[in-house]
Amino acid sequence: MEMITKMVLERPVVIYSKSLCCMSHTVKTLLCDFGANPAVYELDEVSRGKEIEQALLRLGCSPAVPAVFIGGELVGGANEVMSLHLNGSLIPMLKRAGALWV
């Protein structure tokens, strides 16, 4: 868990993903289209990916991917990100975290 804490504090937006996960792709596309430039960790491609995935499950991410952190805080998975987008909260959250300049 300490590893995750360190990783999510390095950038305003961090996404833990798997390269072939369609929901991960959707979340990455949405945030990139906004210009958020997230740090993306593909757990099926990085060393210690299984360890990170287990830590995400312990944090309450179910399923483990996609797991989105904004401003160092766990936002959740695809459902939570899409809900924030639909209710108009996502862009202000990204701005507060310093991920968007506009």
Automatic annotation (TrEMBL):
One cellular component (GO) term of this entry: cytoplasm
InterPro entries named among the record's database cross-references: GlrX-like_pln_2 (IPR011905), Glutaredoxin (IPR002109), Glutaredoxin_subgr (IPR014025), Thioredoxin-like_sf (IPR036249)
Cytoplasm in keyword set: yes
Xref: SUPFAM superfamilies: Thioredoxin-like
Places the protein is found: Cytoplasm
Family, similarity comment: Belongs to the glutaredoxin family. CC-type subfamily.
Protein's UniProt name: Glutaredoxin domain-containing protein
